[in-house]
């Protein structure tokens, strides 16, 4: 039996979800129609693609501990071509701190509690009990592999596994983007004011802020569409001020938009409306 398949089945017997990797640490597609981007997915993607092969179809989402799936027809060719076995740490409640070079390892030894370690080609994997959100490049040479991610299996390692420390969880917590003062060209219209009362405009700005804050994804598109709606409803009579625009920019920046992207979205919305 193929040595990678043997390793995968041994891990599965211990409840570890696994998948085959080809050269370059890239996952295999599970069917001819599932070639990475053709079904909406990509290697190491964050959501499974919508193809009709045994779902889910890519990377961490394909990892399984079911022996019949691992040794079945779907992966029979993949194991013959495999260059490594991968595992899904988050699938069994673990987190791998992937230290990619000596400086990263030195940082971990200074900063993190000791735990089980596995030697890699260039550095080490530090494995903790507890799952968290995965993230790449949280520090130079440091990746977090846990939920919705996979790591190459390089052996059981040495040392006693310890609980996931707050110092690792904190690595993915981003400081809120500072809300910078903005100066924007608010159109001063000559048309008839439709606002009737200040409360009408205030309600429109508050609703726009809420729409941006509640955006789950596609923030660029959400910000642009919101700016477009605000300018369309309130931008032609002269009541919309720099202070209103600054509130919208601030809301967008709390969702990760840069001041430049805010200014571009505002400018593009004005252009689209002929302002």
Features:
single chain; 275 residues; alpha+beta; six-stranded mixed sheet; four-stranded antiparallel sheet; 10 helices
Blueprint (SSEs and pairs):
Layout: H1 3-13, E1 18-22, E2 26-27, H2 59-62, H3 67-70, H4 76-81, E3 84-87, E4 94-99, H5 102-111, E5 116-119, E6 124-129, E7 135-139, E8 142-145, E9 151-152, E10 162-163, H6 166-169, H7 198-213, H8 219-234, H9 242-254, H10 259-272
Which class of secondary structure composition applies to the elements?
A: alpha+beta
Question: Helix tally?
Answer: 10
Radius of gyration: 25 Å
Uncertain stretches of 5 or more adjacent residues:
36-50
C-alpha termini separation: 70 Å
Helix percentage range = 25-40%
| Apparent shape | elongated
Largest β-sheet summary = 6 strands, mixed
Q: Average pLDDT across residues?
A: 80
Report on the structure:
This protein is α+β, with helices and mostly antiparallel strands and about 280 residues long. About 35% of the residues lie in helices and about 15% in strands. It has 10 helices and 10 strands. Strands 4, 5, 6, 7, 8 and 10 form a 6-stranded mixed β-sheet that branches. Strands 2-1-3-9 form a 4-stranded antiparallel β-sheet. Helix 7 (about 200-215) packs parallel to helix 9 (about 240-255) and helix 8 (about 220-235) crosses helix 10 (about 260-270). The protein is elongated and about 80 Å long.
């Amino acid at each position: 039996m193929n040595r990678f398949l043997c390793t995968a089945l041994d891990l599965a017997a211990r409840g570890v979800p696994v998948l085959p990797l080809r050269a370059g640490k890239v996952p295999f597609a599970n069917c001819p129609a599932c070639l990475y981007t053709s079904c909406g997915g990509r290697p190491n993607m964050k959501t499974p693609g919508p193809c009709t092969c045994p779902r889910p179809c890519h990377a961490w989402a394909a990892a399984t501990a079911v022996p019949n799936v691992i040794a079945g027809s779907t992966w029979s060719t993949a194991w013959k071509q495999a260059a490594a076995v991968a595992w899904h740490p988050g699938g069994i409640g673990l987190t791998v701190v992937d230290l990619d070079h000596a400086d990263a390892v030195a940082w971990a030894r200074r900063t993190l509690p000791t735990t089980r370690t596995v030697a890699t080609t260039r550095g080490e994997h530090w494995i903790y009990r507890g799952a968290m959100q995965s993230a790449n490049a949280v520090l130079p040479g440091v990746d977090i592999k846990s939920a919705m991610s996979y790591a190459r299996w390089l052996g059981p390692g040495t040392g006693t596994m310890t609980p996931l420390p707050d110092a690792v969880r904190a690595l993915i917590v981003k400081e809120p983007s500072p809300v910078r003062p903005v100066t924007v060209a608010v159109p001063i219209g000559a048309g008839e004011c439709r606002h009737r009362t200040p409360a009408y405009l205030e309600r429109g700005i508050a609703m726009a802020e809420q729409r941006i804050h509640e955006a789950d994804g596609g923030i660029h598109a959400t910000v642009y569409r919101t700016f477009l709606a605000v300018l369309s409803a309130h931008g032609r009579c002269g009541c919309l001020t720099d202070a209103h625009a600054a509130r919208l920019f601030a809301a967008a920046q709390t969702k990760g938009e840069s001041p430049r992207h805010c200014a571009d979205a505002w400018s593009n919305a004005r252009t689209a409306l002929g302002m």
